[in-house]
Known about the structure:
Blueprint: H1 2-9, H2 11-37, E1 68-71, E2 76-79, H3 83-86, E3 93-96, H4 99-104, E4 108-109
Amino acid sequence: MQGFRSLLTNKKALEDIALAAIIILVGTASFGLGKLSRDKGSEVPSRFSKAPIQASVVASAKETSGSVVASRSGTTYYPNGCAGANRISSENKVIFESATEAETAGLHKSAQCK
């Protein structure tokens, strides 16, 4: 009993106990809030979804002057003649008639090709 009374009268010991209690309470509250945010009613849809590209895959066709190309599994399209377009294998190459058609399929223009 004497040890407990000395803790209550020691200011430094009380500050340490209070700090430990605050850390434990904040940790417990954070865990509980994190668990609540992942409950069934609050499912957040995935930001990245792969929509199937609606263009024909052409293995050995030559691109027309106004076309753009993309990889079957990529999210970027490249203008005809861009170095990035040359790196796509012919099995994975998808050819679009225009940039608008590629953007409609959910692709965005490559930053490396101007």
